[in-house]
Amino acid sequence: MEMVKLTPSVADNIWGGTRLIEEYGIKTDKNPAAEAWVLSCHPAGPSTVQNGKYEGKTLQEIYLEDQSICGKKGERFEFFPLLIKFIDAKQNLSIQVHPDDEYAMRVEGEYGKTEAWYILDCDPDAELILGFNREVSVEEFKEAAKSDAMMDICNKIKVKKGDLFFIESGTMHAICKGILLAEVQQNSNTTYRIYDYGRLGNDGKPRELHVDKAADVTKRCPPAISDASERKTEIFENATRAELTKCDLFTMYKLDVDGKYQAVADDESFVSLLCLDGEGKVTCGGTTLSFVKGESIFIPASSGEYTVEGKLEI
Ligand code: ZN
After folding, report:
1. Which residues of 65-82 are buried (b: 16+ CB within 10 A; e: fewer)?
2. Which of 167, 193, 197, 208 has the smallest CB count inside 10 Å?
3. Torsion-angle region of 145 (φ positive above 0: left; ψ -120 to 50: alpha; else: beta)
4. Apex CA 313: angle with CA 51 and CA 253, to 5°?
5. Is 220 assigned a catalytic role?
6. CA 237-248-302 angle, 5° bins
7. How far is the CA of 91 from the centre of ligand 1 (A)?
8. Is residue 40 within 8 Å of residue 82, measured between CB atoms?
9. How many whole angstroms from its chain centre is CA 75?
10. What DSSP assignment string belongs to 60-94?
11. Rounded to whole angstroms, how far apart are CA atoms 164 and 152?
12. CA angle (56, 58, 60) in 5-degree steps
């Protein structure tokens, strides 16, 4: 399979804004554009190929034909392993949690969800919720979820552009208003909603909560927070590459290119490039694709050398 550019699926969740359309070039009829699933094999919102002999096919269709696109590290997975999104939170997302693989496979028939957020932009006073500000009992957790008492026990964190948050499954969390981020997560859509600030959904009714399942899977304690000063950064002639986070599911880098940068998609893993700013092009094999802010390029495992050229944040 050749390198491809992907068209995202867009979700119009009630809390979303329009910045992905206005600033990131995401094309959609949906309004708001809360989430753009820029690398997705999930049936709830598959990404579609824009170029070459697979044009018009979903990445999932290609994956079903040829699972080697994920490389050796992908062999242990029954489904395509990851899902990558842009999220524009104009309003607060519900306070929620995702189960781990064991619970999710048993109860929901899909993977659990560990995820990581890279903050692309945020309001000066923006904050998010991660875990609790102290240990709480399961009874206290369930009781607090019935009212805004939840806001007194959740752990609020101020955010700034460039921050990275690693959210292991079982960690209660919410992206709050005024945050635009890129997310790498397991290929799962299982979310247990714990508290929704008493809001009403599009149908005028409160959105469903899943407090009992959440209580099964939530770690009721303060979270572990990674330290940006520990980021490994490699300096190349025309590029800088900082390792944002690494786990047994994915490694996430911030790559700044000014000129020409070369790298390799080896037989271990695919490479997903997400353009956060700037413009340029990517060449791999006989294929060259233009690359601008908001676009997503998928390079299958074993594609070999690829070149990124231009002035780009990836
Ligand atoms: Zn989440």
Report:
1. eebbbbbebbeeeeebbb
2. 208
3. alpha
4. 95
5. no
6. 55
7. 15
8. no
9. 22
10. HHHHHH-GGGG-GGGTT-SS--EEEEEEEESSPPP
11. 24
12. 160
> What's residue 311's pLDDT?
98
CA–CA gap between residue 308 and residue 286 (Å, rounded): 14
**In the chain, what's the furthest Cα-to-Cα distance?**
60
Cβ atoms of residues 242 and 254 within 8 Å: yes
Q: Output the CA 202–ligand 1 centroid distance in Å.
A: 21
Which residues of the chain have a pLDDT value below 50?
A: none
Q: Which of 76, 106, 134, 193 is catalytic?
A: 193
Q: What's the start-to-end Cα distance of the chain, in Å?
A: 22
pLDDT tens digits for range 71-97: 999 999 999 999 999 999 999 999 999
Distances (CA, A) of 244 to 85, 141, 184, 262: 16, 32, 11, 20
- Look at residue 260 in the predicted model and tell me its pLDDT: 98
Q: Which two tokens stand for residue 219?
A: 């770690």
Q: Please state, in angstroms and rounded to a whole number, the distance separating the CA atoms of residues 145 and 172.
A: 12
Torsion of CA 70, 111, 14, 207, to 10 degrees: 170
- Taking Cα atoms as reference points, which of 100, 278, 57, 271 lies closest to residue 192? 100
Cα distances from 61 to residues 30, 36, 39, 45, 56, in angstroms, run: 24, 19, 13, 13, 10
Strand partners, 304: 265
Q: How far apart are CA 101 and CA 104, in angstroms?
A: 5
Q: How far is the CA of 115 from the centre of ligand 1 (A)?
A: 7
